[in-house]
Amino acid sequence: MTTIMYLNYFGLQTEPFSIAPDPSFLYLSERHQEALAHLSYGLQGSGGFILLTGEVGTGKTTVSRALLERLPEQTRTAFILNPMLNETELLATLCDEFGIRYAKRNITNKRLTDKLSEFLLAAHAEGEQCVVLIDEAQHLRPQVLEQLRLLTNLETNQSKLLRVILIGQPELQDLLRRRELRQLAQRITARYHLLPLQQSDTERYVNYRLQVAGAQRALFDKTALRLVHRFSGGIPRRLNLLCDRALLAAYNDQVHVVGRAQLKHAVKELELDAGQQRPSLGGRWAMASVVMVALAMGATGAWFWQHKAAPTSQPSAKLTQQEQPMRALMRAWQLPQPATETTLCDWVNQYQLSCVKGRLRFDRILALNLPVLLQLNSGDWQWVDSAAVTPDDDWNGEFLAVFPQPPGYRLEDPQTYQSWLQDQLAHYLPAAALAREGDQLNALAQAVQRQHGLPITGELDGVTLAWLASHHTELGPRLKTTSPVDGEVN
């Protein structure tokens, strides 16, 4: 009865913040779209495994459903929602999902594998693609993962006959770093770690769900929306619970718009803490070695990746007098604080981010439209997140910025990355320049550098890549051009 009155009171047709996965409420935030782009590129590649990880409630299922909706009609899909299986149970479940008939008695791994192989070959001959999606994959046993890898050995000269999408919590990353699974890890062609929503996306998420539920006006004021983001940490599942309780509190108070008081009441009921918004990862992650990505031309004329070593002067996570700039940079990207003695540029790689570091004129640094750290002669760093800020007098010319990695950036899938580069370079050139330069990436890069005031190096260096990545997507923070309207809500 309370629920019915709650809906009628706000003029809603259905519950806007149910945690049930209703497709009509599907909202793809900037980060969900970025994850979807990475995974879609992975399915187009030649590898066998695609990986999506994220903390509980960040929307991994949302992304996977959107991904499956984009698959061609000629796709056969198998879902494994209960990963607590042994090898034989896995093979039998795959046969059941694909509709493969087999004798239930005296089944063996070999017989099931033979049945699956025959099916995959027949599907390929008919122009069909086969995809397996495994949810909660962090619970898979290493032996089961190895069995999956063996299934993906079946391939043509161009591609694998079976694609496997692994979805799980961050522990899945740890599992795949085990030595006995190194061959599987090498076959992952696309991976994405889903971070919580940013403030702007939280507001859009709340308002979108209210509109779908039939709301004809705003039901949360700006203060309440900021508090929703603060106490939910941008995690969609917490957002739903918090907003639902806040609406109920507003109904009980007989007010028509959720404000600070109702939000605080909901927070108290759910026993949420603002500190929950940044989950502590501790030593969970192994450090990657990518710092600045550059594309260079080999002797044979083929394009390849080149990873440059990290400069020794990068900010470490050991916070001394640099604590405030470092914390500001982490807050801007909604990241937890790194573990002690960690090199910053190594650490951000696990979040699909890269660093660019070098020496540039300040106006060219601003052209990147990214928050930056400026290194001072003393070795400290100055935080710059507004175009109105000027560097300190003792700035030594060095800067460091973090930018989102493009789809397909991994070494395992250079072709996808090169394709993305070509599309982006062409997008930022006028038609005349594009016709003149053709499809040579180095010529396109130089033309973009000249056209948009970047340092002209004639190659796709870290600065150009950061500029392209920051202009390609709205993911992540940008430089402020005006002063904020109001301050942080306490």
TrEMBL record:
Residue span, AAA+ ATPase domain: 46-189
InterPro entries in the record: AAA+_ATPase, AAA_22, ExeA_AAA_ATPase_DNA-bind, P-loop_NTPase, PGBD-like_sf
Matching SMART domains: AAA (SM00382)
Any Pfam family: AAA_22
Gene Ontology MF annotations: ATP hydrolysis activity
Protein name: AAA+ ATPase domain-containing protein
